[in-house]
Amino acid sequence: MHIFRGVAAFLAASHSVAAAASTAEQQQQASPSSAPEAPGEKLPPYRHPKYHPSPKRASAVKQAFRISWDGYYKHAFPHDSLRPATNGFADDRNGWGASAVDAFSTALIMGEYRIVDQILKYVPEINFNRTNSEVSLFETTIRYLGGLLSAYDLITGPLKPHFNYTDHQTGAILQQAKRLADNLKVAFNTPSGIPDNDLFFGPPRKKGSKSNGLATAGTLVLEWTRLSDLTGDSQYEKLAQKAEKYLLHPRPALGEPFPGLLGASVNLETGLFENGAGGWGGGTDSFYEYLIKMYLYDSTKFGEYRDRWVLAADSSIRYLISHPATRPDLTFLAMWRDRTLHYFSEHLACFNGGNFILGGLTLDEPAYLRFGLELVAGCHATYTSTLTGIGPEIFQWQDSRTPLNSSNNPGPPADQKKLYERAGFWITNGGYQLRPEVIESYYYAYRATGDKKYQEWAWEAFVAINATCRVGSGYSSLADVNKQEGGGWTDFQESFWFAEVMKYAYLIFAEDAPWQIRADHENQFVFNTEAHPIRIAGGKERYGGWGKGKGEGKGMEK
Protein backbone atom coordinates (compact mmCIF):
# COMPACT_ATOMS: atom_id res chain seq x y z
CA MET A 1 0.00 0.00 0.00
CA HIS A 2 1.15 3.53 -0.67
CA ILE A 3 0.13 6.86 0.71
CA PHE A 4 -2.29 8.84 -1.43
CA ARG A 5 -3.15 12.31 -0.24
CA GLY A 6 -6.83 11.43 -0.37
CA VAL A 7 -7.14 11.64 3.40
CA ALA A 8 -5.85 15.20 3.45
CA ALA A 9 -8.25 16.09 0.65
CA PHE A 10 -11.02 14.34 2.55
CA LEU A 11 -10.28 16.39 5.66
CA ALA A 12 -10.48 19.64 3.73
CA ALA A 13 -13.52 18.64 1.72
CA SER A 14 -15.43 17.34 4.71
CA HIS A 15 -15.04 20.70 6.47
CA SER A 16 -16.85 22.43 3.61
CA VAL A 17 -19.51 19.72 3.53
CA ALA A 18 -20.14 20.12 7.24
CA ALA A 19 -20.41 23.90 6.88
CA ALA A 20 -23.12 23.52 4.27
CA ALA A 21 -25.02 20.78 6.08
CA SER A 22 -27.97 21.26 8.36
CA THR A 23 -27.53 20.82 12.09
CA ALA A 24 -29.36 17.52 12.00
CA GLU A 25 -27.16 16.22 9.19
CA GLN A 26 -23.98 17.37 10.94
CA GLN A 27 -24.96 15.25 13.91
CA GLN A 28 -25.95 12.21 11.86
CA GLN A 29 -24.02 9.22 13.15
CA ALA A 30 -23.29 5.83 11.72
CA SER A 31 -25.72 3.21 12.89
CA PRO A 32 -24.82 -0.43 13.46
CA SER A 33 -25.10 -2.64 10.40
CA SER A 34 -27.41 -5.59 10.38
CA ALA A 35 -24.65 -7.86 9.16
CA PRO A 36 -25.94 -11.44 8.99
CA GLU A 37 -22.84 -13.00 10.54
CA ALA A 38 -21.01 -11.59 13.52
CA PRO A 39 -17.40 -12.50 14.35
CA GLY A 40 -17.37 -15.25 16.91
CA GLU A 41 -19.79 -17.44 14.99
CA LYS A 42 -17.94 -20.69 14.48
CA LEU A 43 -18.38 -22.04 10.98
CA PRO A 44 -16.33 -24.75 9.29
CA PRO A 45 -13.13 -22.96 8.25
CA TYR A 46 -11.18 -23.55 5.09
CA ARG A 47 -8.13 -25.51 6.14
CA HIS A 48 -7.04 -27.66 3.21
CA PRO A 49 -8.10 -25.97 -0.02
CA LYS A 50 -7.09 -27.59 -3.27
CA TYR A 51 -4.98 -25.33 -5.46
CA HIS A 52 -4.78 -25.29 -9.25
CA PRO A 53 -1.41 -24.06 -10.55
CA SER A 54 -1.31 -22.75 -14.10
CA PRO A 55 2.26 -22.84 -15.45
CA LYS A 56 1.18 -21.18 -18.70
CA ARG A 57 -0.33 -18.17 -16.96
CA ALA A 58 2.49 -17.97 -14.44
CA SER A 59 4.91 -17.91 -17.36
CA ALA A 60 2.98 -15.05 -18.98
CA VAL A 61 3.32 -12.99 -15.82
CA LYS A 62 7.03 -13.78 -15.67
CA GLN A 63 7.38 -12.55 -19.23
CA ALA A 64 5.76 -9.24 -18.27
CA PHE A 65 8.20 -9.03 -15.35
CA ARG A 66 11.15 -9.61 -17.70
CA ILE A 67 9.92 -6.94 -20.11
CA SER A 68 9.54 -4.47 -17.24
CA TRP A 69 12.94 -5.29 -15.81
CA ASP A 70 14.85 -5.30 -19.09
CA GLY A 71 13.40 -1.90 -20.00
CA TYR A 72 14.29 -0.52 -16.59
CA TYR A 73 17.78 -2.05 -16.59
CA LYS A 74 18.56 -0.74 -20.06
CA HIS A 75 17.17 2.78 -19.79
CA ALA A 76 16.88 3.68 -16.09
CA PHE A 77 19.11 1.55 -13.85
CA PRO A 78 20.47 2.41 -11.29
CA HIS A 79 17.95 5.24 -11.00
CA ASP A 80 14.67 4.64 -9.21
CA SER A 81 12.02 4.35 -11.91
CA LEU A 82 11.60 3.91 -15.65
CA ARG A 83 9.70 6.31 -17.90
CA PRO A 84 8.80 3.64 -20.46
CA ALA A 85 7.16 5.75 -23.17
CA THR A 86 10.24 7.97 -23.56
CA ASN A 87 12.91 5.53 -22.31
CA GLY A 88 13.81 7.96 -19.55
CA PHE A 89 14.17 7.68 -15.80
CA ALA A 90 13.13 9.33 -12.54
CA ASP A 91 14.73 9.47 -9.12
CA ASP A 92 11.50 9.63 -7.17
CA ARG A 93 12.78 7.53 -4.23
CA ASN A 94 16.12 9.17 -3.44
CA GLY A 95 18.09 7.73 -6.33
CA TRP A 96 19.00 4.46 -4.62
CA GLY A 97 17.53 2.18 -7.30
CA ALA A 98 14.03 1.66 -5.86
CA SER A 99 12.90 -0.53 -8.75
CA ALA A 100 15.90 -2.82 -8.34
CA VAL A 101 15.32 -3.34 -4.62
CA ASP A 102 11.56 -3.70 -5.10
CA ALA A 103 12.15 -6.30 -7.83
CA PHE A 104 14.59 -8.32 -5.70
CA SER A 105 12.14 -10.57 -3.82
CA THR A 106 9.95 -11.06 -6.90
CA ALA A 107 12.92 -12.14 -9.03
CA LEU A 108 13.90 -14.60 -6.30
CA ILE A 109 10.42 -16.10 -6.07
CA MET A 110 10.12 -16.36 -9.86
CA GLY A 111 13.52 -17.99 -10.17
CA GLU A 112 14.79 -15.22 -12.45
CA TYR A 113 18.41 -15.86 -11.54
CA ARG A 114 19.91 -13.54 -14.16
CA ILE A 115 18.00 -10.66 -12.63
CA VAL A 116 18.80 -11.79 -9.09
CA ASP A 117 22.51 -11.73 -9.95
CA GLN A 118 22.21 -8.21 -11.36
CA ILE A 119 20.45 -6.90 -8.25
CA LEU A 120 22.70 -8.73 -5.79
CA LYS A 121 25.76 -7.24 -7.47
CA TYR A 122 24.24 -3.76 -7.17
CA VAL A 123 23.03 -3.83 -3.55
CA PRO A 124 26.45 -3.35 -1.90
CA GLU A 125 27.05 -0.33 -4.14
CA ILE A 126 24.05 1.65 -2.85
CA ASN A 127 25.20 4.70 -0.91
CA PHE A 128 22.48 5.14 1.69
CA ASN A 129 24.43 8.02 3.21
CA ARG A 130 23.69 10.42 0.37
CA THR A 131 20.63 11.66 -1.50
CA ASN A 132 19.64 14.96 -3.05
CA SER A 133 15.98 14.69 -2.09
CA GLU A 134 13.81 14.45 0.99
CA VAL A 135 13.55 10.98 2.53
CA SER A 136 10.22 9.42 3.52
CA LEU A 137 10.67 7.13 6.52
CA PHE A 138 7.54 5.18 5.54
CA GLU A 139 8.32 4.69 1.85
CA THR A 140 11.98 3.95 2.52
CA THR A 141 11.04 1.38 5.15
CA ILE A 142 8.51 -0.54 3.10
CA ARG A 143 10.45 -0.47 -0.19
CA TYR A 144 14.15 -0.48 0.63
CA LEU A 145 14.37 -1.89 4.15
CA GLY A 146 11.57 -4.38 3.52
CA GLY A 147 13.01 -5.36 0.15
CA LEU A 148 16.47 -6.03 1.55
CA LEU A 149 15.22 -7.98 4.57
CA SER A 150 12.95 -10.09 2.38
CA ALA A 151 15.73 -10.92 -0.07
CA TYR A 152 17.98 -11.90 2.82
CA ASP A 153 15.26 -14.11 4.34
CA LEU A 154 14.65 -15.85 1.01
CA ILE A 155 18.30 -16.35 -0.01
CA THR A 156 19.42 -17.58 3.40
CA GLY A 157 16.21 -19.52 4.00
CA PRO A 158 14.20 -21.69 1.59
CA LEU A 159 16.13 -20.61 -1.53
CA LYS A 160 19.58 -21.25 -0.09
CA PRO A 161 19.99 -24.62 -1.91
CA HIS A 162 19.41 -22.85 -5.24
CA PHE A 163 22.33 -20.44 -4.95
CA ASN A 164 26.08 -20.60 -4.51
CA TYR A 165 26.38 -17.17 -2.95
CA THR A 166 28.98 -16.74 -0.25
CA ASP A 167 28.22 -15.56 3.29
CA HIS A 168 29.93 -12.32 2.35
CA GLN A 169 27.52 -11.74 -0.55
CA THR A 170 24.40 -12.53 1.43
CA GLY A 171 25.68 -10.76 4.52
CA ALA A 172 26.09 -7.58 2.47
CA ILE A 173 22.31 -7.48 2.00
CA LEU A 174 21.71 -7.38 5.73
CA GLN A 175 24.61 -5.00 6.26
CA GLN A 176 22.98 -2.55 3.86
CA ALA A 177 19.63 -2.89 5.63
CA LYS A 178 21.31 -2.10 8.94
CA ARG A 179 23.20 0.85 7.46
CA LEU A 180 19.96 2.26 6.09
CA ALA A 181 18.11 1.84 9.39
CA ASP A 182 20.98 3.51 11.25
CA ASN A 183 20.47 6.57 9.06
CA LEU A 184 16.69 6.48 9.38
CA LYS A 185 16.52 6.05 13.15
CA VAL A 186 17.04 9.78 13.77
CA ALA A 187 13.36 10.08 12.82
CA PHE A 188 12.35 8.66 16.20
CA ASN A 189 14.20 11.38 18.12
CA THR A 190 11.04 13.32 18.98
CA PRO A 191 9.52 14.21 22.38
CA SER A 192 6.97 11.39 22.08
CA GLY A 193 9.03 8.85 20.16
CA ILE A 194 6.55 8.97 17.26
CA PRO A 195 8.83 9.48 14.26
CA ASP A 196 9.03 12.42 11.94
CA ASN A 197 8.30 10.91 8.53
CA ASP A 198 10.23 13.59 6.64
CA LEU A 199 14.02 13.41 6.77
CA PHE A 200 17.17 14.64 5.09
CA PHE A 201 20.46 12.76 4.83
CA GLY A 202 24.04 13.98 4.73
CA PRO A 203 23.98 13.95 7.73
CA PRO A 204 20.68 12.29 8.76
CA ARG A 205 18.34 14.84 10.34
CA LYS A 206 14.64 15.48 10.79
CA LYS A 207 12.74 18.00 8.73
CA GLY A 208 10.94 19.27 11.83
CA SER A 209 7.37 18.15 11.15
CA LYS A 210 4.76 18.71 13.85
CA SER A 211 2.69 15.59 13.18
CA ASN A 212 2.73 12.23 11.43
CA GLY A 213 0.03 10.16 9.76
CA LEU A 214 -1.52 6.95 11.04
CA ALA A 215 -0.16 4.82 8.19
CA THR A 216 3.24 6.50 7.98
CA ALA A 217 3.79 6.02 11.71
CA GLY A 218 2.03 2.67 12.00
CA THR A 219 3.61 0.76 9.10
CA LEU A 220 7.15 0.42 10.37
CA VAL A 221 6.94 -2.16 13.10
CA LEU A 222 7.23 -5.31 10.98
CA GLU A 223 10.40 -4.31 9.16
CA TRP A 224 12.11 -2.76 12.19
CA THR A 225 11.24 -5.72 14.40
CA ARG A 226 12.53 -8.11 11.77
CA LEU A 227 15.80 -6.22 11.57
CA SER A 228 16.26 -6.62 15.31
CA ASP A 229 15.45 -10.33 15.13
CA LEU A 230 18.00 -10.84 12.37
CA THR A 231 20.81 -8.78 13.87
CA GLY A 232 20.27 -9.39 17.57
CA ASP A 233 20.23 -5.61 18.10
CA SER A 234 16.99 -4.70 19.87
CA GLN A 235 17.25 -0.94 19.33
CA TYR A 236 15.31 -1.07 16.06
CA GLU A 237 12.25 -2.91 17.33
CA LYS A 238 12.21 -0.80 20.49
CA LEU A 239 11.99 2.40 18.45
CA ALA A 240 9.14 1.19 16.25
CA GLN A 241 7.21 -0.50 19.02
CA LYS A 242 7.43 2.54 21.30
CA ALA A 243 5.92 4.66 18.54
CA GLU A 244 3.22 2.07 17.92
CA LYS A 245 2.09 2.23 21.59
CA TYR A 246 0.49 5.61 20.97
CA LEU A 247 -1.57 4.07 18.19
CA LEU A 248 -2.53 1.05 20.24
CA HIS A 249 -3.70 3.32 23.08
CA PRO A 250 -5.06 6.38 21.27
CA ARG A 251 -5.81 9.60 23.12
CA PRO A 252 -7.91 11.73 23.35
CA ALA A 253 -11.34 10.25 22.61
CA LEU A 254 -11.73 12.23 19.35
CA GLY A 255 -8.95 10.10 17.87
CA GLU A 256 -11.04 6.92 18.15
CA PRO A 257 -14.56 7.70 16.90
CA PHE A 258 -15.37 3.99 16.68
CA PRO A 259 -13.66 1.30 18.79
CA GLY A 260 -10.38 0.46 17.10
CA LEU A 261 -10.92 2.88 14.19
CA LEU A 262 -8.68 5.92 14.49
CA GLY A 263 -8.01 9.37 13.14
CA ALA A 264 -5.41 10.21 10.55
CA SER A 265 -2.88 12.44 12.34
CA VAL A 266 -0.83 12.27 15.55
CA ASN A 267 1.14 15.08 17.22
CA LEU A 268 4.87 14.31 17.46
CA GLU A 269 5.36 16.19 20.71
CA THR A 270 2.42 14.89 22.73
CA GLY A 271 1.44 11.66 21.00
CA LEU A 272 -2.16 12.89 20.93
CA PHE A 273 -4.45 12.40 17.95
CA GLU A 274 -5.32 15.60 16.12
CA ASN A 275 -8.51 14.48 14.37
CA GLY A 276 -11.04 11.69 14.06
CA ALA A 277 -11.14 11.28 10.28
CA GLY A 278 -10.03 8.11 8.58
CA GLY A 279 -10.85 4.97 6.63
CA TRP A 280 -9.30 1.84 5.18
CA GLY A 281 -7.81 3.95 2.38
CA GLY A 282 -4.62 5.88 1.75
CA GLY A 283 -3.06 7.63 4.73
CA THR A 284 -4.44 5.22 7.32
CA ASP A 285 -4.73 1.84 5.56
CA SER A 286 -1.61 -0.13 6.41
CA PHE A 287 -1.80 0.60 10.14
CA TYR A 288 -4.72 -1.84 10.28
CA GLU A 289 -2.95 -4.19 7.88
CA TYR A 290 0.06 -4.54 10.17
CA LEU A 291 -1.93 -5.24 13.34
CA ILE A 292 -2.91 -8.74 12.25
CA LYS A 293 0.34 -9.27 10.38
CA MET A 294 2.40 -8.59 13.49
CA TYR A 295 0.40 -11.24 15.33
CA LEU A 296 1.05 -13.65 12.48
CA TYR A 297 4.73 -12.72 12.58
CA ASP A 298 5.06 -13.53 16.30
CA SER A 299 1.94 -14.55 18.21
CA THR A 300 3.84 -14.75 21.50
CA LYS A 301 4.79 -11.06 21.47
CA PHE A 302 1.98 -9.30 19.62
CA GLY A 303 -1.27 -10.42 21.19
CA GLU A 304 -2.23 -6.80 21.83
CA TYR A 305 -1.89 -6.06 18.12
CA ARG A 306 -4.31 -8.92 17.41
CA ASP A 307 -6.81 -7.52 19.90
CA ARG A 308 -6.69 -4.08 18.31
CA TRP A 309 -7.18 -5.59 14.84
CA VAL A 310 -10.21 -7.51 16.08
CA LEU A 311 -11.61 -4.30 17.57
CA ALA A 312 -11.13 -2.46 14.27
CA ALA A 313 -12.54 -5.34 12.23
CA ASP A 314 -15.61 -5.68 14.43
CA SER A 315 -16.28 -1.94 14.28
CA SER A 316 -15.89 -1.97 10.51
CA ILE A 317 -18.49 -4.72 10.21
CA ARG A 318 -20.78 -3.05 12.74
CA TYR A 319 -20.60 0.56 11.56
CA LEU A 320 -18.94 0.97 8.14
CA ILE A 321 -20.65 -1.55 5.85
CA SER A 322 -22.29 0.24 2.95
CA HIS A 323 -24.31 -1.05 0.01
CA PRO A 324 -24.85 1.23 -3.02
CA ALA A 325 -28.48 2.21 -3.52
CA THR A 326 -28.36 1.04 -7.15
CA ARG A 327 -26.38 -2.15 -6.43
CA PRO A 328 -27.26 -3.43 -2.94
CA ASP A 329 -25.48 -6.67 -3.80
CA LEU A 330 -22.11 -4.88 -3.52
CA THR A 331 -20.33 -4.24 -0.24
CA PHE A 332 -17.89 -1.39 0.44
CA LEU A 333 -16.49 0.19 3.60
CA ALA A 334 -17.23 3.88 4.10
CA MET A 335 -14.79 6.55 5.20
CA TRP A 336 -15.51 8.57 8.32
CA ARG A 337 -15.04 11.95 9.88
CA ASP A 338 -15.74 11.66 13.59
CA ARG A 339 -18.89 9.48 13.51
CA THR A 340 -20.27 10.73 10.21
CA LEU A 341 -19.75 8.39 7.28
CA HIS A 342 -18.76 9.42 3.76
CA TYR A 343 -19.39 7.02 0.94
CA PHE A 344 -16.29 6.92 -1.21
CA SER A 345 -13.32 4.60 -1.41
CA GLU A 346 -10.07 4.05 -3.30
CA HIS A 347 -8.17 1.42 -5.18
CA LEU A 348 -5.77 1.57 -2.23
CA ALA A 349 -8.56 0.46 0.13
CA CYS A 350 -9.21 -2.70 -1.88
CA PHE A 351 -6.51 -4.48 0.09
CA ASN A 352 -9.09 -4.66 2.90
CA GLY A 353 -10.76 -7.82 1.58
CA GLY A 354 -7.45 -9.65 1.66
CA ASN A 355 -6.69 -8.34 5.14
CA PHE A 356 -10.02 -9.58 6.51
CA ILE A 357 -9.40 -12.95 4.85
CA LEU A 358 -5.94 -13.18 6.42
CA GLY A 359 -7.43 -12.26 9.80
CA GLY A 360 -10.09 -14.94 9.43
CA LEU A 361 -7.51 -17.59 8.61
CA THR A 362 -5.13 -16.50 11.36
CA LEU A 363 -7.81 -16.32 14.07
CA ASP A 364 -10.02 -19.22 12.93
CA GLU A 365 -12.92 -16.81 12.41
CA PRO A 366 -14.76 -17.73 9.19
CA ALA A 367 -17.05 -14.71 9.59
CA TYR A 368 -14.06 -12.43 8.93
CA LEU A 369 -13.11 -14.57 5.96
CA ARG A 370 -16.60 -14.45 4.50
CA PHE A 371 -16.83 -10.71 4.98
CA GLY A 372 -13.45 -10.34 3.29
CA LEU A 373 -14.77 -12.26 0.30
CA GLU A 374 -17.70 -9.81 0.10
CA LEU A 375 -15.26 -6.90 -0.01
CA VAL A 376 -13.23 -8.67 -2.70
CA ALA A 377 -16.37 -9.03 -4.82
CA GLY A 378 -17.13 -5.33 -4.41
CA CYS A 379 -13.69 -4.33 -5.65
CA HIS A 380 -13.96 -6.82 -8.49
CA ALA A 381 -17.00 -4.87 -9.68
CA THR A 382 -14.90 -1.70 -9.95
CA TYR A 383 -12.75 -3.51 -12.53
CA THR A 384 -15.46 -5.16 -14.58
CA SER A 385 -17.48 -1.95 -14.92
CA THR A 386 -14.90 0.26 -16.66
CA LEU A 387 -14.03 0.54 -20.31
CA THR A 388 -10.51 -0.84 -19.79
CA GLY A 389 -11.40 -3.52 -17.25
CA ILE A 390 -9.20 -1.78 -14.64
CA GLY A 391 -10.51 -0.14 -11.47
CA PRO A 392 -10.24 3.62 -10.80
CA GLU A 393 -8.13 5.41 -8.22
CA ILE A 394 -11.15 6.86 -6.34
CA PHE A 395 -14.84 6.04 -6.61
CA GLN A 396 -18.05 7.07 -4.86
CA TRP A 397 -21.60 5.81 -4.34
CA GLN A 398 -24.83 6.59 -2.50
CA ASP A 399 -25.45 4.52 0.60
CA SER A 400 -28.72 2.59 0.53
CA ARG A 401 -29.55 3.25 4.22
CA THR A 402 -28.69 6.95 4.45
CA PRO A 403 -31.18 9.56 3.17
CA LEU A 404 -30.36 10.16 -0.48
CA ASN A 405 -28.81 13.52 -1.36
CA SER A 406 -28.07 14.40 2.28
CA SER A 407 -24.83 16.31 2.74
CA ASN A 408 -22.82 13.14 3.30
CA ASN A 409 -24.68 11.10 0.67
CA PRO A 410 -24.82 13.16 -2.55
CA GLY A 411 -25.80 11.74 -5.91
CA PRO A 412 -23.62 11.24 -8.98
CA PRO A 413 -22.81 13.99 -11.49
CA ALA A 414 -25.13 14.02 -14.48
CA ASP A 415 -22.58 12.55 -16.86
CA GLN A 416 -22.09 9.48 -14.63
CA LYS A 417 -25.67 8.62 -13.70
CA LYS A 418 -25.79 5.74 -16.16
CA LEU A 419 -22.54 4.33 -14.86
CA TYR A 420 -23.82 4.54 -11.29
CA GLU A 421 -27.13 2.88 -12.16
CA ARG A 422 -25.32 0.02 -13.83
CA ALA A 423 -22.18 -0.37 -11.76
CA GLY A 424 -23.11 0.89 -8.28
CA PHE A 425 -20.39 3.58 -8.20
CA TRP A 426 -19.16 6.59 -10.10
CA ILE A 427 -15.59 7.69 -10.68
CA THR A 428 -14.03 10.73 -9.01
CA ASN A 429 -10.44 9.96 -10.06
CA GLY A 430 -10.06 7.66 -13.04
CA GLY A 431 -6.31 7.19 -12.92
CA TYR A 432 -4.54 3.86 -12.51
CA GLN A 433 -1.09 4.05 -10.92
CA LEU A 434 -0.16 0.39 -11.50
CA ARG A 435 -1.67 -0.40 -8.12
CA PRO A 436 -1.80 -3.99 -6.77
CA GLU A 437 -4.56 -3.97 -4.14
CA VAL A 438 -7.36 -5.65 -6.10
CA ILE A 439 -5.14 -8.46 -7.40
CA GLU A 440 -3.65 -8.71 -3.89
CA SER A 441 -7.09 -9.45 -2.45
CA TYR A 442 -7.81 -11.94 -5.23
CA TYR A 443 -4.63 -13.72 -4.14
CA TYR A 444 -5.73 -14.00 -0.51
CA ALA A 445 -9.22 -15.10 -1.57
CA TYR A 446 -7.75 -17.86 -3.74
CA ARG A 447 -5.29 -19.07 -1.13
CA ALA A 448 -8.07 -19.21 1.47
CA THR A 449 -10.61 -21.06 -0.66
CA GLY A 450 -8.89 -22.68 -3.62
CA ASP A 451 -11.76 -21.32 -5.72
CA LYS A 452 -10.58 -20.97 -9.33
CA LYS A 453 -12.95 -18.02 -9.75
CA TYR A 454 -10.35 -15.79 -8.13
CA GLN A 455 -7.68 -17.03 -10.53
CA GLU A 456 -9.98 -16.09 -13.39
CA TRP A 457 -10.54 -12.63 -11.90
CA ALA A 458 -6.79 -12.17 -11.50
CA TRP A 459 -6.15 -13.31 -15.06
CA GLU A 460 -8.77 -10.93 -16.45
CA ALA A 461 -7.15 -8.08 -14.51
CA PHE A 462 -3.67 -9.03 -15.68
CA VAL A 463 -4.78 -9.27 -19.32
CA ALA A 464 -6.47 -5.85 -19.09
CA ILE A 465 -3.44 -4.25 -17.46
CA ASN A 466 -1.06 -5.90 -19.92
CA ALA A 467 -3.14 -4.72 -22.87
CA THR A 468 -3.60 -1.14 -21.68
CA CYS A 469 -0.47 -0.23 -19.69
CA ARG A 470 2.14 -1.77 -21.99
CA VAL A 471 4.04 0.96 -23.80
CA GLY A 472 7.59 1.46 -25.05
CA SER A 473 10.13 -0.29 -22.86
CA GLY A 474 7.76 -1.23 -20.04
CA TYR A 475 4.42 -0.49 -18.42
CA SER A 476 2.95 2.89 -17.56
CA SER A 477 0.32 4.33 -15.25
CA LEU A 478 -2.86 5.49 -16.96
CA ALA A 479 -4.77 8.77 -17.00
CA ASP A 480 -8.34 7.42 -17.05
CA VAL A 481 -9.43 3.79 -16.88
CA ASN A 482 -12.87 4.59 -18.27
CA LYS A 483 -11.59 6.00 -21.55
CA GLN A 484 -10.27 4.30 -24.65
CA GLU A 485 -6.68 3.08 -24.14
CA GLY A 486 -6.79 4.29 -20.56
CA GLY A 487 -6.93 7.94 -21.54
CA GLY A 488 -3.21 7.94 -22.34
CA TRP A 489 -0.05 6.97 -20.49
CA THR A 490 1.53 9.07 -17.77
CA ASP A 491 4.95 7.66 -18.73
CA PHE A 492 5.81 6.26 -15.30
CA GLN A 493 6.50 2.69 -14.16
CA GLU A 494 6.16 2.53 -10.39
CA SER A 495 8.73 0.52 -8.45
CA PHE A 496 5.92 -1.30 -6.63
CA TRP A 497 4.84 -2.68 -10.01
CA PHE A 498 7.76 -5.10 -9.58
CA ALA A 499 7.22 -5.81 -5.90
CA GLU A 500 3.44 -6.16 -5.81
CA VAL A 501 1.49 -6.40 -9.07
CA MET A 502 3.93 -8.82 -10.67
CA LYS A 503 4.34 -10.87 -7.50
CA TYR A 504 0.67 -11.32 -6.63
CA ALA A 505 -0.28 -11.98 -10.26
CA TYR A 506 2.42 -14.64 -10.43
CA LEU A 507 1.77 -16.32 -7.07
CA ILE A 508 -1.91 -16.93 -7.74
CA PHE A 509 -0.90 -19.20 -10.64
CA ALA A 510 2.34 -20.59 -9.22
CA GLU A 511 3.05 -23.88 -7.50
CA ASP A 512 2.88 -24.07 -3.73
CA ALA A 513 6.02 -22.81 -2.00
CA PRO A 514 7.20 -21.81 1.49
CA TRP A 515 6.40 -18.13 0.89
CA GLN A 516 2.82 -18.74 -0.23
CA ILE A 517 0.04 -17.78 2.20
CA ARG A 518 -1.47 -20.90 3.71
CA ALA A 519 -4.88 -21.72 5.17
CA ASP A 520 -3.65 -24.32 7.68
CA HIS A 521 -1.68 -22.21 10.19
CA GLU A 522 1.61 -23.35 8.68
CA ASN A 523 2.69 -19.99 7.26
CA GLN A 524 6.43 -19.47 7.03
CA PHE A 525 6.28 -15.90 5.69
CA VAL A 526 4.14 -12.79 6.03
CA PHE A 527 4.05 -10.11 3.34
CA ASN A 528 4.86 -6.53 4.24
CA THR A 529 2.70 -3.83 2.70
CA GLU A 530 5.03 -3.71 -0.34
CA ALA A 531 4.48 -7.48 -0.81
CA HIS A 532 7.99 -8.37 0.33
CA PRO A 533 7.74 -11.73 2.14
CA ILE A 534 9.25 -11.55 5.62
CA ARG A 535 10.09 -14.80 7.35
CA ILE A 536 7.95 -15.42 10.41
CA ALA A 537 9.82 -15.39 13.72
CA GLY A 538 10.54 -18.85 14.99
CA GLY A 539 13.94 -18.85 16.61
CA LYS A 540 15.86 -19.29 13.35
CA GLU A 541 16.22 -15.66 12.37
CA ARG A 542 19.97 -15.31 12.66
CA TYR A 543 21.08 -17.21 9.61
CA GLY A 544 24.73 -17.92 8.96
CA GLY A 545 25.85 -16.80 12.41
CA TRP A 546 24.64 -13.24 11.86
CA GLY A 547 23.44 -11.53 15.01
CA LYS A 548 26.08 -12.50 17.57
CA GLY A 549 26.10 -9.87 20.24
CA LYS A 550 26.30 -6.53 18.41
CA GLY A 551 25.58 -7.97 15.00
CA GLU A 552 29.02 -9.31 14.12
CA GLY A 553 28.38 -12.76 12.73
CA LYS A 554 30.39 -14.79 10.31
CA GLY A 555 28.20 -13.52 7.45
CA MET A 556 29.83 -10.12 7.93
CA GLU A 557 33.36 -11.19 8.69
CA LYS A 558 34.17 -12.75 5.35
UniProtKB/TrEMBL annotation:
Residues engaged in binding Ca(2+):
T529
List the Gene Ontology MF annotations in alphabetical order: calcium ion binding; mannosyl-oligosaccharide 1,2-alpha-mannosidase activity
Entry's Gene Ontology cellular component terms: endoplasmic reticulum; membrane
Name any cofactors this protein relies on.
Answer: Ca(2+)
| Cystine pairs | C350-C379
Enzyme Commission number: 3.2.1.-
Disordered: region residues? 22-57
Family affiliation: Belongs to the glycosyl hydrolase 47 family.
Name of this chain's protein: alpha-1,2-Mannosidase
Q: Which organism is it from?
A: Triangularia verruculosa
Lineage of producing organism: Eukaryota, Fungi, Dikarya, Ascomycota, Pezizomycotina
